[in-house]
Every structure is written in structure tokens, then in C-alpha cells.
């Protein structure tokens, strides 16, 4: 089976990167070509998303070579496909990948290399979401590290080498656990096929206790999500990364962790997930409240958004913990909400990082006490920033509200107190978002920023794309929730 | 002819459309000072008012809501979340009040906001505000209601912080949003708790939907929810109402909210934001009546707030602050009425209050236009210069004080009467609280009236700034007709809105107790009480006493206000410091406890301990490597020695233990 769509979507950015590396010299041409590739890629992801038929069960748009690595005892398949869970995430990657390229317009240093790595990064992330072979998944998972490390350590700011190395070591440590888990699963079941693995695990005699394998995989995903207490790479990496990389990092890379949790942990080990869901709920509450409380203290705009990501990714974890209701009793609302939260957090936080980048470009500072009164100087950036902030604090009619509401509705019946505590996060979020907006944009305009301009057209384009997605999902969420719901229902009906 | 569903949707869509037109067409493409924004808004809201009247007419004589099928929006598992319009008597009255008062405010704003650099932005927000409030009162689903509930909060944030370059405005806007969100948190938990009990709803035949308001009524009526469940639901919903309606203990945001333009205050305090809280309790009244605990909570919080807020209104010098505390206090009356089951009286008071409170704020704005200040200590003598403003302010003040035959007299009297008739401890407590409140209300509003309009002018903004800083220019004359006209209309409503809308005897074409009887629906059945002349005289005497004291102190000056303040220094300080609630909340709870302690310790913990551990692991790895690297000398001799010693040790171990 080979429909070709996903192969194209996954490898187009890589091909683009190769072409840039080999043939294109001038910076202007590099930029234009990268932009073209990313727009085409975005259009392709839209097509993939719309080709996915939510009324049909199972994975679709399959690209498969059964004997990709044809060693009899180690049969690795080239197997791409999407279901209701991954199709929207592929779309998200296309959207944010495009925004990242446009957000890099002002990069002056080693332009060619920069765009090459940015495009490679996009291939890696898309590959993670589209892979249905565990080794292929792992390859893409690891591939993402190389461009990330280089992008942060070369084009970053502040303690960029430290942050890049910290990010790398954290992720690689997780990957080591995951690789062991993958290999144990393979030698127990004889397959890397993610679609077949769940049933195969049920039947197989596992070489390690199931709980150990579950833990090995969970640690890798928890680091990526990130779950407290393995979260401290995130504020550093986000703060020191260039704008576009922060967008990709917060927008899609964190989702690799939560996607892995649902795709692997929940689907392959439903009973264990149910058994340990109290722990997930507890960690989620810590993520939400601890993250929010610390966010309040941040005086660097980027660091503030980074910590808010920890808080908001806690809602994803909380939604996943709704499987604690136990076999047969699980409502799909919590998991659907968690999946939607991945998407909405991706667009909202992506937009926030984009805007922080713009503010920094214009004012040359991200230190909040130095800012203030910018609304008069940059009305467009300020308006969009306010909108993004409101979306982040879960204002109805914007997308964040729907996903948070679904997470709460789905998890409250299972973990009432944990959900109630986590829901208090909406009050603290309102606090730090509005206070940040007040200190940055409101108040009297300052002499120092008298000559600061507003966003240019090329800067406003990616912001507009994200705003549209945030508003559209907020007003008509069903077009995503129905797709996510199809994916979640398939998991729940076959596994729980 | 009954209003079709599409037309009812347009009640909400028209102001929303006006918002979109201003944001996407007028703002980018027209001159900043283009009058178009104002006209578009007024046109849209006027049309919405016409449609609202049609909706009201359609519900007359019907006990049950117009049966429109809701529309699918989002699937929550097997449970559809559907959007629709619940057009019942309560909603039909609310849409008319909201669009009517909003229309008056918009017309007034044409004059008040003329020349402001944010003219079009102002009208865009006002359109959205009106649209959100109309959407709120028409929602047929509790989640839909919550959506608009939050949007109303957003609009008040945007409008309170309209002059965002002023730090006080930016702070007040933030405060309003966060304090009300504390209440919204309770409302959200109530929604979650409803959903938690979804099984109880869906197991009925025919199955009920726990999120649809009419099904919640049904469930409450059938008594399928346990009493504990109903109580918690009602308390959660009431928490939301406490936040929005500025009830104790979440009242602190409302007085600060006057940092916004004055017409915004008129809208917030009369028909939109704060009325939403009372509406919310009224909307879920069938649920509340099933829980005596919840009802008593509502009554006592309302009764306490009525007196508590009025007491602070006694000493404020800023005219808008007096009015703000007055609003909190009056909303307390509505809440206490709901709490004792006087549903009709509460909504009737909401109805009359909307007119006279909007008018009072317009009066304050008009006075500010002339004097440049809101501080009554620098006003005085404005009656001669502003006869229309004075006359309408007087009518509204009399109405607020509850003087016959003003609108406020009838509605307030009905609340007192219901409290008296009800019997029981809670009703007696709130009756006496309400009566004390009547005295305070009459006093503070006539204190404001005398300080503003009587005796001699005390210099306005120029005196206030005492020469330093550029003062708002003082030009003592009546406001333009475009501002006076809506004041006159509202003045007429404040005068006649009581006995014409809810007469105690049939008046020709107007049936007896028109509003009350219209509101009495299938879901909330009640009968308006018969007029009680004794109580009416008592409450009037109390009100007149309040006015008399204000007259003696601030007009005739027989009693010196300064001496009073000096003699009761501790009480005066306590009141003028607003019982230190701002300090307790902002300086102590938020800054000291939450920001410095909790947040600060966690922030330190995260950097020093959690991340320190990570760096520690890194340090350990690096230094272990460095230490081991010392062994790698590159000298073959030392490697050879190492290997030899190693082999000897292994052999030794092998021979001894092997």
C-alpha cells in the first residue's frame, strides 16, 4: 500500500533543505525558497487533513514498505499513516512550520544553514506524527535533536550553548529509556508495528514486567511533554532559542511527548495507564499550579511564556488521566480534550512566541519592567498579543477555552478534586497574562520607544494565520474535535 | 405574529455585526474621527431593540418558552452540546431592558465621546458588550451562557481599560477581570458538577441533557438530583453571580471600574455586566428554590451587601464611587429578593434600577463634562448651569431613594413587602437590613445631589489640580442635546416605569402586576403581593428621614459633616478606607501571601533545587570524567603497570576465594 501523500508531506521539507544546501546561494533566494516550500507543505498538510475520512475507522493514507530493513530477525517497516489523533497534528506541524519560516525573515547570521536546519526539523517532527513503525518513529524522534541543538546553540541568545546542551541531554536520556523499551517490546512480540503492537503485547510473554516497559516509555514522553520534575530544560531552551525555534519547540515538539503518551503508553498498556492515572492526575495538578505560580514571577517575556507552557501542558496530562475511570467506563471527552489542547496550545503559544519575537526585534528587550506603553506604538502587535493572551487564559470563543473545558468535563467525573484544583489554574493564568499585558503594552507610552514601529506585512502574515486558526477553532471546534474524537474512540473501543 | 427564530438570533447578531463592521471596515478605512462608528452602533442596537420588543410581544400570554430546537455545536462523547435561544418571559424582558438602556447609552456617548482618539474603538467595544449581554440572556445552554458570561467580562475589561495609557485604568481593568474570574471559577465548577451528574439526566425517559437549561429545570422539578447536589450546584452558580454582581466578598472591583469612560459605567451598572449576576440566579431559580441552604445564602449575602455597600457610599467624595457603591447595594436588594423567593420583585427592581442607575451615571458624566472633575468637593451650584441634568438627576435620585411615585419606590417596596410577608428568621433579618439600607440610600444619594448641584460652585477641575498639571477645562453649561435627550427619556422611565409597568391596580390597557404576572411562568410560579399601605408609609418615612439628614448636613449645613467625621473618626476612617478590603486582598493576599510567599518560594525551589539537581548531575558527570581523564597519561609504562596490577589482583582473588 502506498498512497504517497504522507511520504511527500514528511520529506518535502527535507528535500527543500537539500536543494537549498546544494544549489541556492543568495540569502534572499534561500528565504524565498524556504517560504515557498513551507507554504506548499502547509497546503499539503491541509490536503492530508481533509483526505482523512473520520467516518472510516483505522489508519489511512498508508505508505508502507514491509521490508524496509529486511533482516529476518529485525524486520523494520517503512510505515506511515494517520488516524484521527495524528492527522490534526500533521496539520499543526504544517501550520507552525510555515509560521516559523516567516518568523525567521530577519535572521542575518548564516542564513542558508539556518533555513536548512529549520526545514530538517520540520521533516523530523512530521515524521514522528506520521510514523507507525516504532523504529521509524524513534529515528524521527532522534533526528529532531540535531537541528534543534544547532539552531539553539548557533542562532540563540543568552546562555545558548548551555541551554542547547541541556535540551539535548534531557531528551537523549529519555530516548535511551525509550529505546530499551522498544527493543524489549520487539523481542517479546516480534514486531515494531505500532498498529499491531497493542494486541501483540496482550498475547506475548513480556521479557520485562509490563510496568517496567511502561515506565521506560513514559519517562521519555514525560521529559518531552514536559512533566514536573523533569521540566527544567524547557524554560532555558525556550528562552535562549531564536523565535522560530521557540515556536516549533512549544508549538509542536512538546506535543511529541503527549502524542507518544496517548499513542504508546495509553494504547499499548491500557490497564497500567488506568492503574497509574492517579499519578498522572497528581502530576498534572502540579504542572498546572506549580507552573502557573512560577510564571507569575517571571520578568522575561519569553521565560514567562515558557513557564506558562508547562502549566498548559498540564491540562493535556490531566485529560490523559481521565482514562482512570477504568475499563468500559471511560468517556472520550477527556482524551479528546487533551488532544485538542495539544493543537490549541500549539497555535496559541506559537503565536505568543512569535509576538514576543516581534516585540524583541523592535524594542531590543524582553525584560518586562523595561517595557510598557507599547500599545500606542504598535497597535497591531498589541491587539494580536492581547488576543493571544486571552486565548491562553481560556476566553470562550477562542480555541483554548474549548480544549480546557473538554479536559475539565472529561476528567472531573474521574478525578474530581484534581480537576477542581487544576481548574483554579484559569484564575492564576488570568492573573499572569493580564499583568504581563498591562506591564508590556498599557500605561503611558515611553520616550525610549518613540521610534518603535509596528509589524510589517511579512511579519503580520504568520500571526494572521495563527489568529485565524485560533478564532475558527474557538467558534466551530467540531471540525477538529470530531476528527480527534474518531481517533480517541478507536483507541477506547479497541483497548478499553 | 410570533417572532421567527432567525429574527431572534439577529437581536444578538446585529450588535455583533456592528462590532465586526467597525473593526474590519470603519477602523482601517475611515477617518479616525468618523462619526460612522457611532451611527452604525446606534442603528444596530435600535434594530435589536425593535426585534426585542417583538420577542417580548411574542412571549406575552405564554407560560413556556418559545420552542426552538437548538443547533448542534460540539459533541461531548455521546452528549451533544447544542446552542439555541431560550425565549421565555425572563429573557424577553431582559432583551428589551438591555437593548433599550444600551441604545440610550450609545446616543449619549455620541456627545460624551466626541473628539476622543479612540472613538471608533469605543463603539466597537460597546457593540460587542451589548451583543455579549444579549447573547447571555438568550442562551439556552449553560455552556453557551458561560461563553457569553466570559465575553461580557472581556468587554468590561476592554472598556474599563479603554484609556489604557492611564495606569489606574489598566489596573482597574485587570482587577475587574481577575476578581470576577474568581467567581467564574465557582460557576465553572458548577458546570463540571452538572456534567458529573450526566447519568442522572440521561437515564430519564425521555433522556435529559444536563447542559440544557430547560432540562435542568425539568430535573429540578422532578427532584431527580439529590438535595446535596442541588445545593452545591446552586452555590457554584451563585459564586459566579457574586463575582459579576459585585456582591460581598467580591465587590472590590466595581468601584474601581469607574476608570472607564462614564457611559461605560452607565452600561455596566445598569444593564450589562452586573445585571448578569442577578440574571444568572434568576435563570437558575428553579434550581435554587429546591435548596433552602442556597436560598438562605443568597438572601443573607444580598442583604448584607445591601447595607455593607451603602455604608461605604455614605462617605465617598467621588460621585461615581458613590454611585458604584449604590449599585452594589441595589444589586444586594435584588439578590436578597431572589433569596427569599421574591423572583418577580427582584426582576422588577432590576428593571427599574436599570433606568435610574443609567441615568444617574449619565448625570455624573454630564456634570463632569462641565466641571472637569468627579470629586464632589469641587462641584456645587451646578443646578443653575445645568437645569436638565439637575432635573433628571433629581428624578433618578428620588427613584433610587424610593420616593412615591417614582419607579424605584414600587420595586423596592415590593421587595420589602415580600420579606415582611415571608416570615422566618432569614426573611426578618433581611427585612431589617433592607430597611436600614433604605435610610442609607436616601442619605448618600441626596448627599451627592446637594454636594453637586446646590450652594456655590467650588472651582471644578481647576481647583482640584490647584494650578499644577494641566486641568480639564471648566465650562459651566448644559451638555449638548444628544446627551440630554437620552437622559430625559430615562428620566421618564425612572418616573413612570414603576407604576406603569407593574401597577398595583389595573390601569386601562395595562393589567395589574403586568411584569410580575408576565414573569410568572410554568417553571417559576409566584404571585405578586397585594399593596401594603402601612409598609409603604414606613419605608417612605425612612427614606425621607435619610433625605432630611442629608439636607441638614449638606444643604442647610445645620449639622457639620466635618464635626461628624471628627467625632466618629474610627468609623469614618473605616468607611472611607472601604473596610480595608483592597489592602487585605491586594497587599496582603495577592502580593504578600501569593506572589511573595507561594510563588516566590516555588520559583526559588524550581531554580535552586529542581534545576540545581539537574546541574548537579551534570557537574558530577563532568568532574568524574575529568578525574578519570587524569588516568589517561599516554605513558605505556603506567598503562602496563596498571594492567599487571589488575591481573595480579584478579589472580589473587581467584586463588584465595575461587
Describe this structure in words.
The complex is a heterodimer of chains A (496) and B (658). Chain A has 496 residues and is mainly α. Chain A has one domain (5-495). Helices cover 72% and strands 4% of the residues of chain A. Chain A has 22 helices and two strands. Chain A has helices at 5-23, 27-51, 87-103, 111-130, 134-143, 145-155, 160-189, 197-203, 210-224, 233-240, 243-268, 270-275, 277-295, 301-320, 332-363, 374-377, 379-392, 399-411, 416-423, 425-441, 457-475, 478-495, and strands at 60-71, 74-82. A two-stranded antiparallel sheet of chain A has the order 1-2. Chain A is globular and about 70 Å long. Chain B has 658 residues and is mainly α. Helices cover 73% and strands 2% of the residues of chain B. Chain B is built from 28 helices and two strands. A two-stranded antiparallel sheet of chain B has the order 1-2. In chain B, β1 (71-76) and β2 form a beta hairpin. Chain B is globular. The relative contact order of chain B is 0.07. The mean pLDDT of chain B is 87. At the A-B interface, α13, α18, α19, α20 and α22 of A face β1, α5, α6 and α27 of B.
Mean pLDDT of chain B: 87
What is the overall shape of chain A?
globular
Query: How many beta-strand elements of chain A?
Result: 2
Q: Tally the structural domains of chain A.
A: 1
Span between termini of chain A? 29 Å
Instruction: Please state the overall shape of chain B, judged from the principal axes of the Cα atoms.
Output: globular
Physical arrangement of strands within the biggest beta sheet of chain B? 1-2
Secondary structure: helix percent of chain A:
over 70%
Largest interface: A-B, 54 and 50 residues
Residue share in helices of chain B?
A: over 70%
Strand order of the largest sheet of chain A: 1-2
Note the total helix count of chain B: 28
Instruction: Give me the count of strands of chain B.
Output: 2
Mean pLDDT of chain A: 91
The whole-angstrom Rg of chain A is 21 Å
